[in-house]
Amino acid sequence: xxxxxxxxxxxxxxxxxxxxxxxxxxxxxxxxxxxxxxxxxxxxxxxxxxxxxxxxxxxxxxxxxxxxxxxxxxxxxxxxxxxxxxxxxxxxxxxxxxxxxxxxxxxxxxxxxxxxxxxxxxxxxxxxxxxxxxxxxxxxxxxx
Length: 144
What we know:
Shape: globular
Oligomer: single chain
Distance between the termini: 22 Å
Strand content: 25-35%
Mean pLDDT: 83
CATH class: Alpha Beta
Number of strands: 6
Order of helices and strands: EEEHEHEHEH
Radius of gyration: 14 Å
Largest sheet: 6 strands, mixed
Number of domains: 1
CATH superfamily: STAS domain
CATH architecture: 2-Layer Sandwich
Strand order of the largest sheet: 1-2-3-4-5-6
């Protein structure tokens, strides 16, 4: 399933239990709340078992301060709902700082992984999630 809006887009890979999100632009609270609502709808088919997410922030800009708490709560929701692997792609120092503030709010600071390129993140996803799905090898450790 694919969903697209001006601020974000999703692609859900049900075969590999992965949701891919691409984040665009500068966000205010309304965009952050809309993202959380749409994300929860899109990820529904994956919630019955452990799942992973790969979030592309390469086109995201530092957002309004109120977004930190909203997305932090969204991150906490993900871990409470079977997310076991959470990967973020970004290469902007300003957005990196704000993302880590969101990790703090969502309780992810020590476990979320960031990458500078999509290729690095996809390689990690393949090696540590897709190739390790049940039947291939043991479950990955919980690093969402």
